[in-house]
């Protein structure tokens, strides 16, 4: 017996709640950036501690994305989405109450576990709810929410820090999660892979350990600026070996958790690679410019957040016209133009100095937002067009995992390069400070400015700014290079919007599968 289609009047409401859900979790990727100085002071944290408070979330997020997509396809996307939202909300509450930096790092890691399902599963639900004709606009709206979430984090964080304590940047998640839960329970239908393939615990375990180990090694190498140290190269090598074993194992299975044939598809590989390269450039660029706004230009957290708002606003605004742009210029042309915009924006930021006019910075932010905004939705639509509807969660999980690892790599590599060039440029200038303060000053621009306070010693303040600018210039030019590489990969995308894939079972892709009452076997809809 076939389940009725989702009421057309409910679809826009479902899109809004899914967009809200993904906005919350993407916002949390960047909201901590504006609070780092405050947290360092309140929790007596070192620079390495602050890096781990950022990266612990990123590591678990990346490690669990694929696993959550597989679990959602198998046990129900709505069910997994609700469970992970609950985890995310509870751990956000505890993170806000952390009494030490170690506690904050642990709770941030657990937040990443809950967050891992949200981008993947929300997009999988969206694809099953919306019919093919409406799907491009729905994906564009979802991508717009993800784009604005990236820039909205610093804005919200800065405004909260002006009125409340540092934990408020995590407390804000709690009411948003509660609203999302109520709306999801009310509006969103249950759906899953109706093929009932055998659960693949080995594939899930290998993906979890492989991605987790690889991401940990990447972050560790960026923290220590030593990619060949045993505690960096070891986890990286182990992660690569585990992922290779995963691919080889899944290729031999009749019903694998990871459909490795997707990785050999030009459209899927190109779409995933473009998003990964652009995300590397985006997160690396945000990491560098967030410090520039506060440390070099002397802006308060709220002011820095507001200066990043044009990026999110541009990404959100352009999402409404993406379907028309694709219709006129094709996916290849739109994505290539978007990555070119990102390249130009990062190149402009690379030459910014302490007194660069604000209007130039705003224009560069708008350009970055427009670029990212027109990359995510078309590239996502292209790669998902080759994924069968019944495997929507797992297919999107593969793409999201690659993207998240690229994001971790962007923060770690760009942060490492920035630190190396900063220290080399500063040289022995910090020797004018007392011996106990030199390491802090040479460690980062934030440490140097904390040591100097409102004063100056031997003209060190100007040398610190010059040294940071040197590192910022190199780091952002590398980000621009990755964005430019994405332009070349974008040329492998289809010119025209691709047709949706044929379902592997006689189930309408727009028809959700409602679960049977407990204790009874699940029935598979038939044509």
List the helices and strands and how they pair.
Blueprint: H1 11-30, H2 36-42, H3 47-75, H4 77-96, H5 101-115, H6 117-129, H7 135-163, H8 168-171, H9 173-187, H10 201-224, H11 230-251, H12 266-296, H13 301-318, H14 322-350, H15 358-384, H16 392-426, H17 435-443, H18 445-452, H19 460-490
Helix pairs in contact: 1-6, 1-7, 1-9, 3-4, 3-5, 3-10, 3-16, 4-5, 4-6, 4-9, 6-7, 6-16, 7-13, 7-15, 10-11, 10-16, 12-14, 12-15, 12-16, 12-19, 13-15, 14-15, 14-19, 16-19, 17-18, 18-19
Q: What is the overall silhouette?
A: globular
The fraction of residues assigned to DSSP E strands is: under 5%
Number of strands: 0
Helix content: over 70%
Distance between the termini: 8 Å
CATH class: Mainly Alpha
Q: Which series of helices and strands comes N to C? A: HHHHHHHHHHHHHHHHHHH
- Classification by helices and strands: mainly alpha
Annotated CATH homologous superfamily: MFS general substrate transporter like domains
At the fold tier of CATH, the topology name is Growth Hormone, Chain: A
Oligomerization status of the protein chains? single chain
Rg, Cα atoms, Å: 23 Å
Main pleated sheet: none
Would you identify the CATH architecture?
Answer: Up-down Bundle
Low-confidence stretches: 500-527
Which whole number gives the mean pLDDT?
77
Number of domains: 1
- In DSSP terms (H or I, runs of 4 or more residues), the helix count works out at 19
């Amino acid at each position: 017996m076939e389940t009725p289609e989702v009421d057309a009047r409910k679809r826009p409401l479902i899109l809004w709640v899914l967009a809200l859900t993904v906005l919350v979790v993407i916002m949390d990727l960047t909201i901590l950036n504006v609070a780092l100085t405050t947290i360092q002071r309140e929790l007596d944290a070192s620079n390495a501690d602050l890096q781990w408070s950022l990266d612990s979330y990123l590591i678990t997020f990346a490690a669990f994305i694929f696993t959550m997509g597989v679990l959602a396809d198998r046990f129900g996307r709505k069910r997994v989405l609700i469970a992970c939202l609950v985890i995310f909300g509870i751990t956000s509450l505890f993170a806000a109450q952390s009494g030490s930096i170690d506690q904050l790092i642990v709770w941030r890691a657990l937040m990443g576990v809950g967050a891992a399902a949200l981008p993947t599963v929300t997009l999988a639900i969206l694809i099953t709810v919306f019919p093919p004709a409406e799907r491009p606009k729905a994906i564009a709206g979802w991508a717009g929410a993800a784009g604005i979430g990236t820039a909205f984090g610093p804005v919200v964080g800065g405004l909260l820090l002006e009125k409340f304590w540092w934990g408020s940047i995590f407390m804000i998640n709690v009411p948003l999660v509660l609203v999302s839960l109520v709306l999801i329970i009310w509006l969103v239908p249950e759906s899953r892979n109706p093929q009932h393939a055998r659960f693949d615990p080995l594939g899930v375990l290998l993906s979890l350990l492989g991605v987790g180990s690889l991401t940990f090694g990447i972050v560790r190498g960026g923290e220590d600026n030593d990619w060949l140290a045993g505690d960096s190269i070891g986890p990286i090598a182990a992660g690569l070996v585990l992922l290779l074993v995963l691919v080889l194992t899944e290729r031999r299975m009749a019903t694998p958790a990871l459909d490795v044939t997707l990785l050999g598809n030009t459209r899927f590989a190109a779409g995933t690679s473009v998003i990964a390269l652009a995300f590397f450039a985006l997160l690396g660029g945000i990491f560098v410019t967030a410090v520039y706004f506060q440390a070099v230009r002397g802006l308060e957290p709220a002011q820095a957040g507001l200066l990043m708002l044009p990026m999110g606003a541009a990404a959100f605004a352009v999402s409404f016209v993406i379907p028309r742009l694709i219709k006129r210029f094709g996916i290849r042309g739109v994505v290539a133009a978007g990555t070119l915009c990102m390249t130009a924006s990062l190149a402009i930021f690379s030459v910014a100095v302490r007194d660069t006019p604000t209007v130039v910075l705003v224009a560069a932010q708008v350009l970055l937002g427009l670029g990212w905004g027109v990359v995510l939705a078309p590239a996502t639509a292209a790669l998902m067009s080759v994924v069968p509807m019944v495997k929507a969660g797992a297919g999107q999980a593969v793409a999201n995992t690659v993207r998240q690892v690229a994001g971790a790599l962007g923060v770690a590599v760009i942060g490492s390069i920035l630190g190396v060039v900063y220290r080399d440029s500063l040289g022995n200038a910090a020797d004018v400070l007392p011996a106990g303060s030199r390491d802090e000053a040479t460690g980062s621009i934030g440490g140097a400015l904390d040591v100097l306070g409102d004063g100056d010693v031997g003209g060190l303040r100007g040398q610190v700014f010059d040294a940071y600018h040197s590192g910022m210039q190199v780091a952002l030019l590398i980000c621009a290079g990755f964005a430019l590489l994405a332009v070349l990969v974008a040329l492998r995308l289809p010119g025209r919007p691709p047709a949706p894939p044929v379902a592997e079972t006689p189930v309408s892709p727009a028809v959700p599968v409602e679960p049977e009452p407990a204790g009874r076997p699940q029935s598979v809809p038939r044509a």
